[in-house]
Please model this.
Amino acid sequence: MALLQIAEPGQSAKPHQRKLAVGIDLGTTHSLVASVRSGQVETLPNSRGEHLLPSVVRYLADELPQVGIKAQSHLVDDAANTVMSVKRLMGRGIEDVKRLGENMPYLFEACDQGMPLINTVSGLKSPVQVSADILRALVQRGESSLGGELVGAVITVPAYFDDAQRQATKDAAQLAGIQVLRLLNEPTAAAVAYGLEQDQQEQGTIAVFDLGGGTFDISILRMEQGVFEVLATGGDSALGGDDFDHALAEWMRHQRQIPAQLDLAQQRFLLRLARAGKELLSHTQTTQMSFSGWPGDADFADIELTREQMNLLLDPIIDKAIKATKRTLRDAKVTVDGISRIVMVGGSTRSLRVQERVTELF
Model:
């Protein structure tokens, strides 16, 4: 889906006439840009060889915004001007956003086309503008790697995104100066990425379980002779690893009896600590959560977090994904026993508890 040859009907494109395009995964936590070269899919790195781009933008008063790892390093010390997880805000009204949680790590000021605006030192920024800055960085990476100007991009979106969220994604691409060749549902993109359509002999019904940083999709696909048909799609466009982080952050707040009214830097500190602990517990049983560097006057002792305690906190959130999966199976008129293969997609499926719960279901 990356190197396109565009020619008039009946004509073949000459090598120097080839047009360049990329595939972009615009994620809640991280984003990627990819291409196809010599028949092989490649994610494109930056000049330092880094493939993942943190979906974080930091706004400065008189400079261009920082995007990625450099911005991510300022999530706590410049919290008001550093925006994370903006995908959760795309196409959503302020009331929808409030339902995501009481302590949202942003400074909201007003609304534009229904979406909340974020107050930064360089002015009010809409979720579309922030997403455009992320897309712009990915496009620049693509053009640098491929050595030419792009004609457009295929951008993946959650299958459960509604029309407003899809339109907001298109608007962000337009603002970034990139033509959207197609919006591709993320579970479908995953099926293609795993090469499921290339095995002409494979037949059966496949479940694509896609749990990312901010969104969840479950798609039931039927494979037959290299063609897959989407039988049903379900999910939740506000469910993902961010919710794990918020649950762990709230638990830590209670453990140390920290007042509920946190400032932005304190919210970000707890969320960053929660994410680090969550990731460590994917390969260890216990970890120490250190409050060193807490942005406040108080000093707090470390907290021991076990995998067992974390699982108790995550289970109510994972329950929502399991219930959505069961509903989608019913919509597809497929039983659990009728699923021949499960494809696990998204960073949050690295959580051992998610893997255990999906294994129990299937």
